[in-house]
Amino acid sequence: MNILEGKLGWALLLILALIFPLVASNDYLLTVMSLAYIYAIATIGLNLITGYTGQFNLAHAGFMAIGAYTVGILTVDHKVPFWIAFALSGFVSAGIGVVVGIISLRLKGHFFSIFTLCVGYIMYLVIEKWESLTHGTVGIIGIPAPESFFGIDFETPRAQYYMVLFFLVLSVWIMHRIVTSLLGRTFVAIRNSDDLAEALGINLMRNKVLAFVLSVFYAGFAGGLYAGSVRFLGPGLAGVEHTFDMTMFMLIGGIGTLFGPLLGSISMPWLTQYLQFLQDYRFIVFGPILVALVIFLPNGIVGTYLAWKARNASRKAIAAAPVKRPTVMATAKQEG
């Protein structure tokens, strides 16, 4: 029944996403939702290494920028077709992720996070200063829209919305396959205890690097979509504040869950949009809301719901369990 409920829930969300362009009043709403979907893909990747494996990578936005700049440089400077450049975006990020992962994952805890923070800042500086490759602070302008695919034109915001939605669904499905597999349980075992996982015969370094590479592949993949949707890139995309945004999405939705990062990534941009009328004062309202969510829902919205559901199921199981009554012979033995 739980599996059925899960499938029905995901199907309902997909239906709502499909009909959203039909009820959206303007193209701006489609653009906001498309960007939310792109950041949801990147956040799902960050959740793999942080929520499931227990390693907080602060260079995640840098890897997203690498994927975006891969598409921008290849399409604008070298006239490579968008789909070829897009296919390479995730693999370029993953290739760099192998090197960074092998070096950084020798560290643990906050030492790993500090190291990746430095790596992320180095990525930002490289993008900003290497003008011959990245165009520096000017950025890359005029990134072409994705070419027509099977007669589908991706010039309009509605077409781009459905394109991003397709890749979001694909990303969620693949991540579901990963986290529910033996590999996903291996990642969780590492998160719970390095020593216990190693005692069970798990190769810590190999699996941590694999989780790191899969995570940054998602980031580069999202970056490629970002380049094709926004069509302008600047060094700010690699800023650590974007990693903190994705971390916030995870914490609010529910870190270590599949639906939580998706919920946070989609809901929080809309909340900030609705608070824009407050202008500079919107953070006075936004900040306390975040603090209240972290205090009263420390496991996030989805994590809190799953914990409540588990406790409720446990109480029902205990209540439904048959009560063993002492027999006459047992009573006689006790009296004797």
Automatic annotation (TrEMBL):
Biological source species: Noviherbaspirillum album
The listed locations are: Cell membrane
Query: How is this protein situated with respect to the membrane?
Result: Multi-pass membrane protein
State which residue ranges cross the membrane: 35-53, 58-76, 82-103, 110-127, 161-188, 209-228, 248-271, 283-308
Identify the stretch annotated as signal peptide in this record.
Answer: none
Q: Which UniProt keywords apply?
A: Cell membrane, Membrane, Transmembrane, Transmembrane helix
Among Pfam families, the record links this protein to:
BPD_transp_2
Name of the protein in its database record: Branched-chain amino acid ABC transporter permease
Question: Can the keyword Nucleus be found in this entry's annotation?
Answer: no
User: Its principal location?
Assistant: membrane
Its lineage reads: Bacteria, Pseudomonadati, Pseudomonadota, Betaproteobacteria, Burkholderiales
